[in-house]
Amino acid sequence: MPGQPPTDDDDGRPSLATQRDTETVYQPAADSDLLARTARSHATPGDRGLDVGTGSGYVAETLAEAGVDVVASDLNPDACREAAARGVPAVRADLLAPFREDAFDLVTFNPPYLPTEPDKEWDDWMEHALSGGEDGRRLVDPFLEAVERVLAPGGRVFLLISSLTGIGDVQRYAHERGLAGEIVADEAHPYERLVVIRFESRDESPLP
């Protein structure tokens, strides 16, 4: 969650532990809202959508309100239950593994992006929701490697990341895997900049 007060971490960044406002499921915060608003503004009623790592289901619910035929997915069974309680179909899934090729016009992902040293990790669902590993890209990179497979022709991906994760690094990694990206929304917060990057297949997009 952006905007938390700093702790005694050497780099001044809020420690992962200060981000834990809930026991098992990540609740909507500024990053969730930025992604939801941005994806909704680019959505078309009737789009087939997937919200990966849905957490509470907030982004998926926002897309459903815009007329998207959306499915929510999360590895955390408690998150799946929360999303379902919002009226969104939810599937327990590890990223994109169970979904068929060319299935979605719109894919959203608010990944765990906080860089975290291994000795500051813990083994629970909030670690999975918040910790991006040492470089912040523990799930970002595998997602980018796999997401084109599930995109329908002309499909779009909306990925929320932080400046803590390395925005240029993420864009280059995606470009090397056939995805063209551009920043379509951003917000400044006290300790980071949040951005939403829209990705499309380079075969179908004029983006560089």
From TrEMBL:
The keyword Transferase applies. Residues 1-52 are annotated as: Disordered. The keyword Transferase applies. Residues 50-109 form the Methyltransferase type domain. GO terms for biological process: methylation. It comes from Halomicrobium mukohataei (strain ATCC 700874 / DSM 12286 / JCM 9738 / NCIMB 13541). Keywords: Methyltransferase, S-adenosyl-L-methionine, Transferase. It comes from the Archaea. This is Methylase. InterPro entries: Euk-Arch_PrmC-MTase, Methyltransf_11, PrmC-related, SAM-dependent_MTases_sf. One of its GO terms (cellular component) is eRF1 methyltransferase complex. GO terms for molecular function: protein methyltransferase activity; S-adenosylmethionine-dependent methyltransferase activity.
